[in-house]
């Protein structure tokens, strides 16, 4: 009988530890605080689907219906930098719909391009959005792009509010951030596995029904149109071609993540990572030697 209070206390402590282990940790450093946000027209132009795009009260709205989606593009090309935007996604049935923020030089090197992606893969009601990060290096022109996908089910609902999503691309590493929590770091191990050519920053909403949601099992259903993506608080700080260069610090020490940031990244991958290309036994890893 005398042990009962102690057992209750142990149970309570274990419950608290479980809750805390699943709570978002502080990264201890906030790269987004180093960069001043810009308005859409300060850094971007409409690329396609102008009739499916508007800016209201500082928020860029893009939408997809059965006639078209929409995309935008930075005014400058960059050799490296910190690139981010706050995004809010549409709830409900969004299968097949991709809402994205990414770096690419596809227009300069069609069929042989580099790309660094943040893509939200549409979903069906009751299932979480999948955030896909990806890196392409000198993609082939025959449809056999070698993807380096890592996918996450985030620790919050991205349809409820705006959250900040960022790519840091330096000559030696790529880091993906969600609300300043690093979720993935991709290191340069060779010239062949790391994007080095200048890229533009893009965003878009489009129909990728053939693969986006559960490998194409669920398609875009235009009975639910329009599908809307929202962007604001754009941040670009990098090295434009022919311009001056200043990369923001991504950690207290500069280029390398701090122990606290590494701990936060380990937490994100432990709790939210749902796919890692390096651990997919179906993949031909001779094509991804960094694994």
SSE topology sketch:
Blueprint: H1 4-21, H2 40-43, E1 44-48, E2 53-56, E3 59-64, E4 70-74, E5 78-88, E6 97-104, E7 115-121, E8 130-136, E9 150-152, E10 163-169, E11 173-178, E12 181-187, E13 200-207, E14 227-240, H3 259-272, E15 273-276
Antiparallel strand pairs: 1-4, 2-3, 3-14, 4-13, 5-10, 5-14, 6-7, 6-13, 7-8, 8-9, 9-15, 10-11, 11-12
Task: Tell me what the structure shows.
The structure is a single chain. Residues 10-20 have low confidence and may be disordered. It is built from 3 helices and 15 strands. It has one domain: Jelly Rolls. The longest helix has 18 residues, at 4-21. The chain is mainly β and 291 residues long. The strands form 2 sheets. Strands 1-4-13-6-7-8-9-15 form an 8-stranded antiparallel sheet. Strands 2-3-14-5-10-11-12 form a 7-stranded antiparallel sheet. The chain starts with a helix and ends in a 15-residue tail after the last strand. The protein is globular. Helices cover 12% and strands 35% of the residues.
Assign the structural class, choosing from mainly alpha, mainly beta, alpha/beta, alpha+beta, or little secondary structure.
mainly beta
Looking at the structure, the CATH topology is: Jelly Rolls
Secondary-structure element string = HHEEEEEEEEEEEEEEHE
The CATH class is Mainly Beta
Number of strands: 15
* Unreliable segments of 5+ consecutive residues: 10-20
The fraction of residues in strands falls at 35-45%
- Sequence of strands across the biggest β-sheet: 1-4-13-6-7-8-9-15
Treating each run of at least 4 consecutive H or I residues as one helix, how many helices? 3
- Rg, rounded, reads 20 Å
Gross geometry: globular
Number of domains: 1
Major beta-sheet overview: 8 strands, antiparallel
Helix content: 10-25%
| Terminal Cα span | 55 Å
Which second-level CATH architecture applies? Sandwich
What is the mean pLDDT? 91
């Amino acid at each position: 009988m005398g042990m009962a209070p102690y057992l209750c206390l142990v149970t309570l402590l274990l419950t608290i530890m479980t809750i805390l282990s699943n709570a978002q940790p502080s990264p201890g450093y906030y790269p987004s605080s180093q960069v001043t946000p810009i308005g859409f027209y300060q850094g971007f132009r409409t690329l396609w689907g102008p009739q499916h795009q508007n800016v209201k009260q500082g928020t860029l709205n893009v939408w997809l219906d059965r006639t078209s989606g929409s995309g935008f593009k930075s005014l400058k090309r960059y050799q490296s930098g910190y690139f981010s935007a706050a995004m809010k996604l549409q709830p409900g049935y969004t299968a097949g719909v991709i809402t994205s923020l990414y770096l690419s030089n596809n227009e300069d090197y069609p069929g042989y391009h580099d790309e660094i992606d943040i893509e939200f893969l549409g979903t069906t009601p009751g299932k979480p959005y999948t955030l896909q990060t990806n890196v392409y290096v000198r993609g082939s022109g025959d449809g056999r792009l070698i993807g380096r996908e890592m996918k996450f089910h985030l620790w919050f609902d991205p349809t409820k509010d705006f959250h900040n999503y960022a790519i840091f691309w330096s000559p030696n590493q790529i880091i993906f951030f969600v609300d300043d929590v690093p979720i993935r770091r991709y290191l340069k191990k060779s010239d062949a596995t790391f994007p080095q050519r200048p890229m533009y920053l893009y965003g878009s909403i489009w129909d990728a029904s053939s693969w986006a949601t559960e490998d194409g099992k669920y398609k875009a259903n235009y009975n639910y149109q329009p599908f809307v993506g929202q962007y604001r608080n754009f941040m670009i700080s990098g090295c434009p071609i022919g311009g001056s260069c200043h990369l923001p610090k991504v950690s207290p020490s500069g280029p390398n993540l701090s122990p606290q940031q590494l701990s936060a990244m380990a937490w994100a991958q432990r709790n939210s990572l749902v796919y890692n290309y390096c651990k997919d036994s179906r993949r031909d890893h001779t094509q991804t030697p960094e694994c």
